[in-house]
Amino acid sequence: MPPKTTAHKLAKDQKEISVAEFFEKNRQILGFDSPIKSIIMGVKEAVDNALDACEEAGILPDIIVKIDRIDQREYCISIEDNGPGIVSTSMPNVFGRLLYGSRFHAVRQSRGQQGIGISATIMYGQITTGKPATARSKVEGAEAAKEIDIIIDTKKNKPILLREEFIPWDDVSHGTRISFYMSGRYVTGRQSIYEYLRQTAIVNPHSSITFIDPSGKKYVFDRATNQLPPKTKEIKPHPDGLELGTLMNMTKATKERSLVKFLQNDFNRVSERVAKEICKAANLPQTTRLTSMTLESSKKLLDGISKVKIMAPQADCLSPIGDKLIRTGLKHVLDEVRPEFYAPPVTRDPKVHSGNPFLVEVGIVYGGGLPRDQQVQIYRFANRVPLLYQQGACVITKAIENTDWRRYGLEQRGGSGIPFGPAIILVHVASTKVPFTSEAKEAISSIPNIQEEIELALKACGRNLRTHLNKKERRNKTRAKFEIVQEIIPLMAEKTSGILGKPVPDLRGTITKIMNVIWIDDSVTYEKGRHRVKISIYNYTPKQQRFSIHTIIPGGSLNEKSCSLKPSNIKDEEKISWDLPRIASTEIYSLTYELNGLDADEYQDIELYISKINPIDVMGADPLPGDWDVESVNFIESEVVDLEEELDEEPDYDESGEDLDDE
Amino acid sequence: MTSNKRNDEAVQRLYSISESIYKQLERGEIPKMTLPLRTKANIKFDKKSSVWKYGKQKGARSAKRVRGAMMLLRTSYMLEFIQEMIESDRSSTLRESYYISEGWGKAKFNSQDESNMLAEDLEIVTQCMREDFKLRPEEDGARVIGDLNLVETDRRGRLKALNCRDDVGDSGYGIPYNVEKEKLKLSSTSAKFVIAVETGGMFDRLVENGFDETEDAVLVHLKGQPARSTRRFIKRLNDEMKLPVVVFTDCDPWSFRIYASVAYGAIKTAHLSEYLATPSAEFIGITASDIEAYDLPTDKLTDMDIRALNAELKDPRFNTGYWHNEIELMLKMGKKAEQQALAKYGLDYVTNTYLPEKLNELGLMRK
Fold first, then answer.
1. Architecture of domain B5-136
2. From residue B353, how far is each of B343, B346, B350 by CA, in Å?
3. Closest chain B residue to A650, measured at CA
4. Per-residue pLDDT tens for A35-90?
5. Hey, what domains does chain A have and what are their CATH numbers?
6. A&B contacts, CB < 8 Å
7. What is the ipTM of this complex?
8. Does domain B143-361 have CATH number 3.40.1360.10?
C-alpha cells in the first residue's frame, strides 16, 4: 500500500480542468494530429455545420470554401454558407464554447452530433497562430450582418470577443461566414480538402460547393438535384440493444412514475401492449416505482426487453440518400472518369444498434477510366459526411473485406480482403448516433449488426454488378461471333473461291452452325422530340422462326402510325407487343417505331422481351417476366445457358496458351 | 529435290489447305484445320532420330472463334503472297511478310508474332520448310571461327571457297540464313570438335586466347537462343564432318534451354528437330555443381528464374537424373552464374583449366 502522504500529495495537485483545456492538451482526439489533417478537419467541421444548418432551415445549400496561404505554414480558411444565419446573441457561444449545441441530446440523424467541431477548430487555429477567428452572420430580414472577432478562454471554456460590430452584407440575404487562421499543410490527393469536398458533393447532390484553392483555382461541384433531403424527425430511444447504463440514466431522468408508463412514453415503438409485455417478461410489476429501480431490477428490465419483439424504428428519423440520388450524385461527380456502369444502389431498411436506428446504403461504380490493376476505391460516409482517415479501422472496410467479391466479378485473393478492379464502392451509414471509434469521427466501430447490414447491402449491390458483367460478357461473345459470320467467313469464302476459281458457296450452313442463335440488336436515334427505334432481328438458326417481341416505353409516347408492324397488343399505354412474321433462316427482320414528346435521356436503354420461343435461342432480349400480364403468353422458363457449344474432340489450337519460346 | 521443285510442292500443299477450307464451307461446316499441339506436353522422344518431335495430340484451329477464323483467312492470303514470290523469284523476311499484310484489310496481322506463328504452322501442316515458302528470318546466324573450309554460293551465284580462320577477320565467318547444301558446301576441316558458346564475351575470350588453334576447335557463337541456321549449321558439322559438339553456356535456366534446343530440339520447332537438333551434343557447363566445385561468383535467382527452373522439371526433355539433380541443386542454392565468372581466376583460367578439365572428361582434349 502506498503511504498515505502520496495520496494527499496527489490530491493537492489534482484540480479541475476545463473541457477546452483538456482538448487543447489532447487535440489528436479531435483529429488535429498532423499539419495536413488539421486543415482538412477545419474545413470539414465548418462544412458539416453549414450543411446541417441549411437542411434544418429547408434551404438548398450554397457553400464556398476558400483557402489562402499566408506563409509556409499558415493558412487562412473561410467557409461561407447561405444558411439561416445565427442570431447575434448566440454567435459567441456557437463559435466560442465547446460542447455547446442543440443536437447533443437529440435522437436524430445529423452530421454534427457533439457540438465540438467548429469551436474546437477555432481553438486549434488560435493555439497554432495566436490569431482570433472572424465570424459573420446575417439572419433573414436583418438589415446588417453581425461580425465578431473571437478567441476562446480555454481555462473557462468561454468565448472572449475582441471586436463586435454590425456591418452591411448587402449581396447576401442570410448566411454565415467563418474565417480562421491555422497552421498546417495544404496537400492534394486521396486525403485532401478537394477529395473531401468531392465526396461530400456525391452524397449531398442537393448542395452546390465551390472551392477556391491556395493558388486561386476554382472548382465548382454543381447542384445535381433541387430535392432537399426530407427533414429528419427527432425520436425517442428505441429499446433494442439499449445499454444498462443508459437505461439507468433514463430511469433517473424520467418524469414518469410507473414502469409501464415510462416504457410507453419514453421509448420509441413501445405501445401500451408492448410495455405490459415487457413488464411481464421482466417479471416486474407494471406499477414499479422508478425511484425504487435498483441495478438488479434494471438488469431484469433489460432482460425483459430483449425477450419481447419490438417493431423496428420508423425511418423518418433517418435521412437515406436513396438509390436514385446516390446514382445522380455519383454520376454528377464521377463523370470525368466515364464509368461504364453504375450498379443500381441499395438502401436497406432501418435497423437498431444500442437503441439507435441506423440504415445502410451501398453504391458501386464500375469500369471506364477507373484503374484496373489496383485495389478498389472505398468511399465511406457516415450521415452524409465522407470519412477519409482510418480506413483500416472502420467497420465498412471490414464488411468489404469479409465479402467474397469473386462472386460479383472483382478480383480478390482467397476470397477476402479489399478486392481489386476498376470499381468504387460507396457505403453510407446513417444513424441517429453513429458509433465512431473516436471523437475525431474518422471510423465507425465494428458493431456486429451494423457490419451484417453493410455486408447484406454489399451483396445485394454486388449482384447488380454481376448481372451487368454477365450481360456484357454474353454480348461480347455474341459480337465476336457476329464478326466471324458477318465479316470473316464471307471473306474466307471469297478468297478461297477466288484461289480455286470456283463460285462462292452458300454460307448459310456454316453461319447458322457458328451462331445458332437469334440475335436481337437495337438502336435509338433522337431528333426534335422524336425517338426513332430500330430493332433488328437476325435469325442465325438453321430453322425459320416465329415469335413475339415486347417492350416497355414511357406511358403514352408511342406513335402508333410510325410502327413498321402493327402492335398486337398495347397495355396501359406502355407495354407494347408484336407478333412477328416468320423469319427464314439467316434472314434479318427490322422492326421500327417512334416515340413522341420525350426528352432525349428519358428513353435510352430499350427493354426487350420475347415470348413463344425458347429464350436459350435468343440473344439480346430476356424472357417475358411473369408479371407482364399479357394474355396467352406462353414462354418457357429455363436457365440461361452459356453460349458454349458442345466441346470438340480436339482442344482449341489457338488457345493452348503456353509460351512456345524457349528463350 | 531442286529448289524450284520444292517451291512448287510447297505451293501445291498450301493450295490444298485453301481447298479444304472451301470444301468445308460448301458443305455448310465450320471450317477448321487440325494441327499437332505445340506444347511441352506434346513433345515425344523419337527413338529413330534421337530427337524430340511433336506427339500425337492434335488441336483444332476453328472458325468458331475470332482468332481461329482470322488465322484460317490469313492462310489463304499467305498462299497468294507466297505464290507471287515464287512466280517472280523473290523472297521476303518474316518481318516484311508481316508488313505485306497491311494490304490485306481485315486479314492484316496484329503483330509479327502472329505472322511468325502462321509461317511455322504452315511448315507443320505442309511438312515444308519456310525457306520453301520464300520466307526468311531477318536476323542472320551467328559467327564461326576455326579451321573449316567451305564453299558458299553468293548472292550473284558465284562460288566462294573460304577458310573460317584464315579468310575471315576477328569477328569470324557469318552463318547465312540459308545453310542448305545448295547454298553452302562443307569441304574439309582439321578440327577435332565444335564448341558452341552462348555469350559473345566468352566467344571473344576463346578467340583472343587462340583456343581454336591450340585445341583444334571450331568455335561457334550461339548468340543467345540460337537461330535455326546456326543449329542447322552445327548439325551439318556433326553429320558431315563427323565433329563432336559441346555446348558451353552460363549457368541459368535459360542457358539450359539453349542447350536443349541444340541437342534435343526446341518445342517451337519440334517439327524440324530432325533437321536442327544434334542429339550427341554434350553440355560442358556451367552447371550448378560447377558453381560449387569452382567456387564461382554468383547472382541470386529471380522469381522468373525459379519459375523457369520449375517448368524445366516438368519438361520431358529434361527428364533425366542428370538434369533433375542439377536443376534441384540450383533451386536449393538459389544461385546462378555467368560463363565469364571464371575470370575470377584470371583471363586464361577458362582456356587453361576449366575447358581442359571438362573436355578431358569427354576425351576430347589431346593433352
1. Orthogonal Bundle (1.10)
2. 11, 11, 6
3. B59
4. 888 888 889 889 988 998 898 888 999 999 999 999 988 999 999 999 998 888 88
5. 19-221 (3.30.565.10), 244-307 (1.10.8.50), 339-469 (3.30.230.10), 508-649 (2.60.40.1170)
6. 135
7. 0.82
8. yes
